[in-house]
Design brief:
By secondary structure, this protein is mainly alpha-helical. The protein has helices spanning about 5-10, 15-25, 40-55, 60-70, 80-110, 120-130; strands spanning about 30, 40. A hairpin with a 5-residue loop joins β1 and β2 (about 40).
C-alpha cells in the first residue's frame, strides 16, 4: 500500500492532482487507514502512471477516461482505442501547424532591427494591427 505522497513521488503527479483525479473518478477512491490517510494499491499506482503518460501526450481527460473504460471491458476492440489515439495525433498535428505559423510570424516581426522609440517599433505595430501580419495564425 502507498500513501499519497509516495504515489506522487513515484509518478511525478502532484498530490492535489491525485485528489482531483479521485474527485472526477479517474482513479478509484483509496482505502483509508485508521488515521484516515489515503492508502493506494499497486493497480492505483499503475493507473496513475497511465494517466500521467497520456496527459504528457496531450490526451484530454475525457479521452483518457474513454481509454480506461475501453481497456477495462472485454468486449472493446483495439480499433476503438486506435481511433482515439489517431484523433489525438490529428489534434497534435493541427497544433504543430498553428505553432509553425506563429513561429514564422514572430520571426518576421522580430527580424527588423528597430532603433526608434517604442511606439514606432515593428513588434508593437504588428501586435496592435493584425492587418500588418503576413498570414493567418
Amino acid at each position: 500500500m502507498f500513501l499519497i505522497g509516495e504515489m506522487a513521488r513515484r509518478t511525478g503527479v502532484k498530490v492535489p492532482t491525485i485528489r482531483y483525479y479521485e474527485k472526477i473518478a479517474l482513479i478509484s477512491p483509496p482505502q483509508r487507514s485508521d488515521g484516515n490517510q489515503r492508502l493506494y494499491r499497486q493497480q492505483d499506482l499503475e493507473r496513475l502512471s497511465f494517466i500521467r503518460h497520456a496527459r504528457e501526450l496531450g490526451f484530454p481527460l475525457e479521452d483518457i477516461r474513454a481509454l480506461i473504460e475501453l481497456s477495462a471491458t472485454g468486449s472493446s476492440t483495439c480499433s476503438e482505442i486506435h481511433d482515439i489515439a489517431l484523433a489525438q495525433l490529428e489534434a497534435v498535428t493541427r497544433r504543430i501547424s498553428k505553432l509553425q505559423k506563429l513561429q514564422q510570424e514572430l520571426e518576421r516581426i522580430t527580424a527588423v532591427s528597430d532603433q526608434g522609440k517604442a511606439k514606432q517599433c515593428q513588434v508593437i505595430q504588428a501586435l496592435a494591427d493584425h492587418t500588418l501580419c503576413q498570414g493567418e495564425h
